[in-house]
Structures are given as structure tokens and as C-alpha cells.
């Protein structure tokens, strides 16, 4: 009997198929109770109005804040965003640029302390053509890296294995964030 035609209660349970599945239960917040954000809403403008835990915010500054990326490239992938809705780095004020830089440095120190990473990828994608997922709101990526973080999953299966849950990482990073970092020499 053809497998597609066999609809008995045990026919497909556990049978392998050609589909790859990536379980993402954290996305239920967008599906449950019709809470899917409007495509015109800016997630980086909305985040500061939410609780730190719900928005994955690890630290708040005067003109910018730090949050975990909901779709991380690696464990501990953080974003530094100005509160003000600007799209380009050249549109940021001198104060915003300075604080984005300061928060980036602190994020690196905290990530090394909490996660023991070996290095970082840091950067900004300016505009959709350059790969910005949210091109309308300036944000800088801070991606912790380890000598052993690469494996065959991204190459063969186009899947990234994430060893820690976002909420757990947010909790650890936020707890280690200095209350008043002061000037760093």
C-alpha cells in the first residue's frame, strides 16, 4: 500500500519524511491570541515599552539599549539599538553613536565573562540591499564566537544548533551587566 494512502493511526507516526523541522516554541507568542505584530510596527521601537524579560532586553542606556536577537546567529547574539527611530548610522546623533559604542564594549566584556567566548563578529547592515532584517531602525549586531561553534549543521542542513534558550541567556547577561559602568580606561 502506498504510504500516502495508508491513513491508519500508526502509519506515519515516527516515519521519516523529506521535511526538516525546526521547533520554535518561543514564536507562539506571535501566534497566540492573534498577537502577530503588524508588518508596519517596528520591533525596536516597541521593545522598550515591554518588560525586559518579554523584550529580551539586557540593559538600558540613556539613548540606546541592548537586547538579544530573537533570531540569533549564535548563542548570546545581542543587538544595540538607539531608542530613536532612525535607519542610518549617519543619522544618529553624536551622543547615540557614543553610547552605541560604549554599550557594544560592555556587551563584549559581559559576554566574555558570562559565556567565555573567544571572539566576536560585530557589524551593521545598512539598508535592505545590505541584508538588514529591520532596515528602518538602526541596530548593531554583536555575535559571540567560539573556536568550536562551527559544525556541519549550517552547511549541510541549513540549521543552526543553539545550545541555550534565549530567556536563560538574557537572564545571565542582564545579571552580569554593570549597574554603572563609568568610564573604561
Automatic annotation (TrEMBL):
The record places the motif (Histidine triad motif) at 137-141
Q: Answer whether the UniProt record assigns the keyword Iron to this protein.
A: no
Which keywords does the record carry?
Answer: Nucleotide-binding
The parts of the chain that form a coiled coil are none
Q: Where is the HIT domain?
A: 44-152
The UniProt entry, under Pfam families, shows: HIT
Q: Does the keyword Nucleotide-binding apply?
A: yes
Return the PROSITE patterns for the record: HIT_2
Q: Which CDD domains match?
A: FHIT (cd01275)
Q: Do you know which InterPro entries this protein is assigned to?
A: AP-4-A_phosphorylase (IPR052908), FHIT (IPR039383), HIT-like (IPR011146), HIT-like_sf (IPR036265)
This protein's superkingdom?
A: Bacteria
Query: What is this protein called in UniProt?
Result: HIT domain-containing protein
Amino acid at each position: 500500500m502506498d504510504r500516502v494512502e495508508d491513513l491508519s493511526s500508526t502509519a506515519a507516526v515516527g516515519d521519516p519524511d523529506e521535511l526538516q523541522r525546526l521547533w520554535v516554541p518561543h514564536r507562539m507568542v506571535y501566534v497566540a491570541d492573534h498577537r502577530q505584530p503588524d508588518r508596519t510596527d517596528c520591533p525596536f521601537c516597541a521593545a522598550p515599552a515591554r518588560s525586559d524579560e518579554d523584550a529580551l532586553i539586557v540593559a538600558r542606556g540613556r539613548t540606546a539599549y541592548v537586547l538579544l536577537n530573537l533570531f540569533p546567529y549564535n548563542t548570546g547574539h545581542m543587538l544595540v539599538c538607539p531608542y530613536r527611530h532612525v535607519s542610518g548610522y549617519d543619522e544618529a546623533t553624536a551622543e547615540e553613536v557614543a553610547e552605541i559604542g560604549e554599550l557594544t564594549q560592555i556587551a563584549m566584556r559581559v559576554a566574555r565573562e558570562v559565556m567565555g567566548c573567544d571572539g566576536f563578529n560585530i557589524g551593521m547592515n545598512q539598508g535592505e540591499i545590505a541584508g538588514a532584517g529591520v532596515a528602518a531602525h538602526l541596530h548593531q549586531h554583536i555575535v559571540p564566537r567560539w573556536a568550536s561553534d562551527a559544525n556541519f549543521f549550517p552547511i549541510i542542513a541549513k540549521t543552526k544548533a543553539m545550545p541555550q534558550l534565549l530567556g536563560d541567556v538574557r537572564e545571565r547577561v542582564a545579571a552580569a551587566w554593570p549597574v554603572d559602568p563609568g568610564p573604561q580606561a
